[in-house]
Automatic annotation (TrEMBL):
Residues covered by the Tetrapyrrole biosynthesis uroporphyrinogen III synthase domain: 16-245
GO MF annotation list: uroporphyrinogen-III synthase activity
Biological or metabolic pathway of the protein: Porphyrin-containing compound metabolism; protoporphyrin-IX biosynthesis; coproporphyrinogen-III from 5-aminolevulinate: step 3/4
Domain of life: Eukaryota
A Gene Ontology term for the protein's cellular component: cytosol
Family according to the record: Belongs to the uroporphyrinogen-III synthase family.
Record-linked InterPro entries: 4pyrrol_syn_uPrphyn_synt_sf (IPR036108), 4pyrrol_synth_uPrphyn_synth (IPR003754), UROS/Hem4 (IPR039793)
Lineage of the species this protein comes from: Eukaryota, Metazoa, Ecdysozoa, Arthropoda, Crustacea
GO BP annotations, alphabetical order: heme B biosynthetic process; protoporphyrinogen IX biosynthetic process; uroporphyrinogen III biosynthetic process
Protein name: Uroporphyrinogen-III synthase
Catalytic activity: hydroxymethylbilane = uroporphyrinogen III + H2O
Keyword Lyase: yes
Enzyme Commission identifier(s): 4.2.1.75
Length: 252
């Protein structure tokens, strides 16, 4: 059986990947690569209290939704009513589900798998030179989305709402798998930061990755692997379990 190591953030409520892989005949192992800490909550609160000053919100991660939800649920109903009238854009099904579950808002763009795919949807749904879109993001967010928005005359307000760091259990989890004989046939990386945190740990533990099939979730993760001179078997076009299983079963 193929052992698939999943380097992703820790989320005990998100078992879609391990469940789907197990049902599809793979042996998945979740390795927590990242952890998060919310920040800039006063600035975020100020923005969320003023829906009239924004044309909508852009969410590119579940973590950004969680950071907003921490404050949003405590706001008066008048603020909620204001945001209900705005356009809420998301990358991926998981982020969309988080918006619907935590914020009770309708969202657009869940079919997109990355920022590059979301921007055309934003352009279609908004008008140039309108009020800024609130963009809560992480400390390691790439500049691709802001660049594409600027190129299309869409104003935005980027606000770092969570900081990303290496998960304290990353090294221990890898050691435990190796000592238990669960060497990987595949490694799946979900973010550039996951790549940057995991690869040095693998190297420090002398984990031999020769012959291990590497998979990237999304193009920016692929770029991170390539920058480390790691051959990539394939890139998932969307961050879903179905997309990953399809790639594992039908590699390019």
């Amino acid at each position: 059986m193929s052992n698939v190591w999943l380097f992703k953030s820790e989320d005990k409520n998100d078992t879609q990947y391990t469940d789907k892989l197990s049902r599809s005949g793979f042996s998945p192992f979740h390795i927590p690569a990242l952890c998060f800490k919310f920040c800039n909550q006063e600035s975020l609160k100020s923005s969320l209290q003023s829906p009239q000053d924004h044309s909508g919100i852009i969410f590119t991660s579940q973590r950004a939704v969680e950071a907003v939800a921490e404050i949003y649920i405590k706001l008066p109903l008048s603020c909620h009513a204001g945001w209900i009238e705005k356009k809420i854009f998301v990358v991926g099904d998981a982020t969309g589900r988080a918006v619907q579950s935590l914020l009770k808002l309708t969202c657009i763009g869940h079919e997109s798998g990355n920022a590059q795919q979301l921007v055309p949807i934003i352009i279609k749904e908004t008008v140039a030179f309108d009020k800024p879109l609130l963009y809560p993001c992480g400390s390691l967010a790439k500049d691709e989305l802001p660049r594409l928005l600027v190129n299309n005359d869409r104003d935005f307000k980027a606000l770092v709402v969570y900081e990303t760091s290496q998960h304290p259990q990353l090294k221990y989890t890898i050691q435990k798998l190796i000592s238990g004989g669960q060497r990987p046939t595949h490694m799946v990386f979900f973010s550039p930061s996951g790549v940057n945190f995991a690869l040095p740990v693998l190297q420090s533990l002398s984990v031999d990755i020769t012959g291990v099939k590497m998979i990237a979730i999304g193009p920016t993760t692929n770029i991170a692997l390539v920058q480390h001179k790691i051959p990539v078997l394939g890139v998932c076009p969307s961050p879903t379990a179905d997309s990953l299983v399809h790639l594992l079963n039908c590699p390019p």
